[in-house]
Amino acid sequence: MKHIRNFCIIAHIDHGKSTLADRLLESTKTVSDRNMQAQVLDNMDLERERGITIKSHAIQMVHMHEGQQYVFNLIDTPGHVDFSYEVSRSIAACEGALLLVDATQGIQAQTISNLYLAIEHNLEIIPIVNKIDMDGAMIEEVKDQIVDLIGCKHESIIEASGKTGLGVPDIFRAIIERIPSPSGDTEAPLQALIFDSVFNSYRGVIAYFRVFNGVMKKGDWVKFVNTGNSYEADEVGVLKMDLDPRPELRAGDVGYIITGIKQSKEIKVGDTITLRSNPCEKAIEGFVDVKPMVFAGLYPIENEDYEDLRDSLEKLQLNDASLVFEPETSLALGFGFRCGFLGLLHLEIVQERLDREYEMPVITTVPNVSYVAYKRNGEKLNIHNPSDFPDPAALERVDEPYIRAQIITSPEFVGAIMKLCMDRRGTLLNQVYLTPTRVELSFDLPLAEIVFDFYDKLKSLSRGYASFDYELIDYRSGDLVKLDILLNGEKVDALSALIHRNNAEDFGRRLCKKLRELVPRQQFVIAIQAAIGAKIVARETISAMRKDVTAKCYGGDISRKRKLLEKQKKGKKRMRQIGSVEVPQQAFLAVLKMNE
Amino acid sequence: MREAELRRDFFGAHSGSSPAHGSPPTPITSLYLGGGTPSVLTPPQWEQLFEALYRLFPIASDAEVTLEANPDDLDADRLAALRQTPVNRLSIGIQSFRDQDLSWMNRAHNTAQARTCLDLAAAAGFRHVNADLIYGSPGLDDAAWMANLQQLFTANPDHISAYALTVETGTALAHFVRQGKSPNTDDEQASRQFQQMEVAMAEAGYVHYEISNFCRPGAFARHNTSYWTGEPYLGLGPAAHSFIGNHRSWNVSHNIKYVTQIEAGLLPSESEQLSPADQLNESLMTGLRTTWGVDLEALQVRFGERAFAAVASLAQPWLDGGQLALRDGHWFLTASGRFFADRIASDLFLVEEDAALVEMGSEGAAKPVLNMERTRFWECKG
Ligand SMILES: Nc1nc2c(ncn2[C@@H]2O[C@H](COP(=O)(O)OP(=O)(O)OP(=O)(O)O)[C@@H](O)[C@H]2O)c(=O)[nH]1
Ligand SMILES: [Mg+2]
């Protein structure tokens, strides 16, 4: 155990975690040259396409230092705020963290958030100024920031570049000298914490864990403390580029177990594994429950795929512990699930993963935050779905979640950012010059206002030079209304939104316009209306369908034409019937596309 | 000379391809020589061609033998020579009697040729002539379209095919339209001109029997209708299509590839087997385009009760909306429905899992869902 080091790499998004991990894997020859590629740990297609890390990724390396062999268990983590739950679980498996700061960007919102997570778990922090090869690197300035932030010594900060490999030997030395080896008792009853899992269609559920006490051997009967179920350990091993079976894992190790579980419900990330014959006294403290920020309904394209969607969500949940869902029904869309997400990017990724990994494309309803409604009769309701919104007459007040936002930017953008936040019902709390070129702005903002396109707006008006971080602070009362969309007088529940009264009309108008583009012409005129209660606040009309141009249809045309018309028919079959109007699936995404 | 060589080869390839196809059931009642190229063959080449065709296939003595030609191909001499062949019907690509339309459509002929060729054909003794016209093209206003029709009526062909101009993806025209170099077609204009045409044709005594086909009473083109009644047909030459039972094949359209394949003794064709649902969908698509409509009893017998019930429920909204009508056990498109022929057909299609509802009846493919002997519904009033 003395020669094991468990650590993670944490940082703000894009500060170079996965690239630095490449260099560590390379110098320890964990990945062969042939298999090496940039950000090799980002092995999901989605990660490679988007150039971001979505999942934490654990991998074991072997390093020789002064004639002694060391085992390093590294966990690369994502930097985007929507995936912070991945970071928090990885931290529980480690004794140390490499905290990267991009030398051209300095400390940013997620640098701070993730640092606090690590400090809470008593991790040894190794601060690193990364990307020092870049022209715009402000090494000394960033070091000062780091010293201010964590109160470390100036000299303890390592200068590195994930691109050139500079600083890698210093990092190895620091890992060995500064990060404590795991403590734990191999003689004590087995205690291992599941920090992640994945469903494999051949092998069933694979659980990733960290052993804190005891030993786990292949063939042992293990027990999952929270679920109470016992299984035989078919295979245990460590995580290399592939799974690497071992006869046993001991206190301090990070590894995986396969027990042949096929049901995703039987396993829970955060659970403790022990031995059936010699169980530990109590479970390791699991993870705090995720608090979803954004909710949306997910529906199967074909109604009969409802159970398959449930199955897919359960399997995905194994690998995405921050996803929560419960069944709901919609008049427009039938049976589906109300899902909670950590943010809009998370929502998008879940949709994509369902589609790609489970061949389960879904329709998504308008995302919303959760509200608390107080009725006149004293009843209190948690609202995750606009259709649960009580009748305004019975309503005393509605509270909505507020966040405290920290935006760090350069002074030239302050004006534009202030305007954006004010437009989003924000109140400015504070404005501090961290340095002459960096200002920190603090705002209180309703969470609902940042759900849609806030990041995009912020990014574009600051040309990327603004970092944004927030925490939930409290619920405050707001003048919220339910905005309904009607198609020829028929309410489309899947398009309803809860929204501040002042924004409702404008939102309704934009939504009607977008729907006009997305709903095809039909045999009759279609009225699209936005309404608050009985009051119509916006209206668009789709005129009746155009007449076909009648082309000729002889020998050679017949097959071609039949195929074309069959294709049209298939598209039409995918549409949803709202009253007499046929609505294509993209229309339900209108809200997300309103700015395109 | 080289051209002649090539032509002889081309024509040799024609004859050569025939046995490989195998003969459709006897006797053949319609021959169609398409593609324009045959109209520039020399008299000895004509003779060779027909000699080969009549030798290889059982062709009925009263068969309709149509030659497709462009106005600039047809002078008095050539027409006289054609009269000596079995060709007894001409299909001429007039398209328009206005030079601006013709040059815009990239046609080789001019207004004068368009006018005289019809008279020359009649003078040469061709009693059956089809003329193609195009409407809905940019610059063709309603008055000009009517003038085109009236001009054609004076020549009195016994058959007229009129098409709305469509910009097909992948063509040069589509490219120019996308680049803004050509104006796009106007659907409103096309449907207005379609309506004017229906009235004018009826006044001039032409029967509207298929969305884009009109004729003197009784002068239905056998060739065209065989496409819609599901009869077998055999196409020869590059890009030609053939159909028998539930099997459709088509030759490659590339001339050189076609010839080299034929010379190597290979059949340059691809084919598809129509599934029961494909056959149902095609019957609906083609039947609805005609004045005879779709025979519901035949539909039931041929494709089964369950398929029929499914199609019937899909038809209901269109029947309710007045685009589709039911009379004497037939569905047909009403005057307003004719504007939506494609959309309605597509709507009635059975696709994906619904395709499994189709169960071919024991009476099988023989009974056509389209029956030309029956009432012509488009002429019925009310
Ligand atoms: N010049 C230079 N570029 C670097 C360096 N490290 C990373 N990059 C580039 O910075 C970008 C982001 O690098 P990643 O390693 O994916 O960053 P990350 O922190 O893993 O990002 P997330 O996981 O999405 O939070 C990529 O384009 C890298 O090529 C470095 O040391 N020098
Ligand atoms: Mg990364």
Can you lay out the helices and strands and say which pair or pack?
The complex is a heterodimer of chains A (596) and B (382).
Chain A: E1 4-10, H1 17-27, H2 45-50, E2 57-65, E3 68-76, H3 84-91, E4 96-102, H4 109-120, E5 124-130, H5 139-150, E6 158-159, H6 168-178, E7 191-200, E8 204-213, E9 215-217, E10 221-224, E11 230-232, E12 235-239, E13 243-246, E14 248-250, E15 254-258, E16 272-275, E17 294-300, H7 306-319, E18 324-330, E19 334-341, H8 344-358, E20 362-364, E21 371-375, E22 380-383, E23 395-409, H9 414-423, E24 427-435, E25 438-446, H10 447-451, H11 454-461, E26 466-477, E27 480-487, E28 490-491, E29 497-500, H12 501-518, E30 526-532, E31 535-542, H13 555-573, E32 576-578, E33 581-583
Parallel strand pairs in A: 1-3, 1-4, 4-5, 5-6
Antiparallel strand pairs in A: 2-3, 7-8, 7-16, 8-15, 9-14, 10-11, 10-16, 12-13, 12-15, 17-19, 17-20, 18-19, 21-22, 21-23, 23-25, 23-26, 24-25, 27-28, 27-29, 27-30, 30-31, 32-33
Helix pairs in contact in A: 7-8
Chain B: H1 2-21, E1 28-33, H2 43-56, E2 59-69, H3 76-83, E3 89-95, H4 99-104, H5 111-123, E4 128-135, H6 142-155, E5 159-164, H7 172-179, H8 187-203, E6 207-210, E7 213-215, H9 222-229, E8 241-244, E9 247-251, H10 255-263, E10 269-273, H11 276-288, E11 294-295, H12 296-303, H13 305-321, E12 324-327, E13 330-333, H14 341-348
Parallel strand pairs in B: 1-2, 2-3, 3-4, 4-5
Antiparallel strand pairs in B: 5-7, 6-7, 8-9, 9-10, 11-13, 12-13
The site of guanosine-5'-triphosphate has 21 residues of chain A, from helix 1.
3D structure, described in words:
The complex is a heterodimer of chains A (596) and B (382). Chain A has 596 residues and is an alpha+beta fold. Chain A folds into five domains: 4-178, Rossmann fold, CATH 3.40.50.300; 191-275, Translation factors (Elongation Factor Tu (Ef-tu), domain 3), CATH 2.40.30; 294-367, Alpha-Beta Plaits, CATH 3.30.70.870; 372-478, Alpha-Beta Plaits; 482-590, Alpha-Beta Plaits, CATH 3.30.70.2570. Helices cover 25% and strands 35% of the residues of chain A. Chain A has 13 helices and 33 strands. Chain A has an eight-stranded antiparallel beta sheet with strand order 11-10-16-7-8-15-12-13, with helices on one face. A six-stranded mixed beta sheet of chain A has the order 2-3-1-4-5-6, sandwiched between helices. In chain A, strands 21, 22, 23, 24, 25 and 26 form a six-stranded antiparallel beta sheet that branches. In chain A, helix 7 (306-319) packs across helix 8. The longest helix of chain A is centred in the C-terminal third of the chain and has 19 residues, at 555-573. The N and C termini of chain A lie far apart (55 Å). The mean pLDDT of chain A is 90. The longest helix of chain B is centred in the N-terminal third of the chain and has 20 residues, at 2-21. In chain B, 43% of the residues lie in helices and 18% in strands. Chain B contains 14 helices and 13 strands. Chain B has helices at residues 2-21, 43-56, 76-83, 99-104, 111-123, 142-155, 172-179, 187-203, 222-229, 255-263, 276-288, 296-303, 305-321, 341-348, and strands at 28-33, 59-69, 89-95, 128-135, 159-164, 207-210, 213-215, 241-244, 247-251, 269-273, 294-295, 324-327, 330-333. The model of chain B is unreliable at 1-25 (pLDDT under 50). With 382 residues, chain B is α/β, with parallel strands linked by helices. Chain B has a seven-stranded mixed beta sheet with strand order 1-2-3-4-5-7-6, covered by helices on one side. A three-stranded antiparallel beta sheet of chain B has the order 8-9-10, with no helix packed on it. Chain B has a three-stranded antiparallel beta sheet with strand order 11-13-12. Chain B starts with a helix and ends in a 34-residue tail after the last helix. At the A-B interface, helix 13 of A face strand 5, helix 8, helix 9, helix 11 and helix 14 of B. Bound molecules: guanosine-5'-triphosphate and magnesium ion (MG). Magnesium ion is lined by residues 17-18, 42, 53 of chain A.
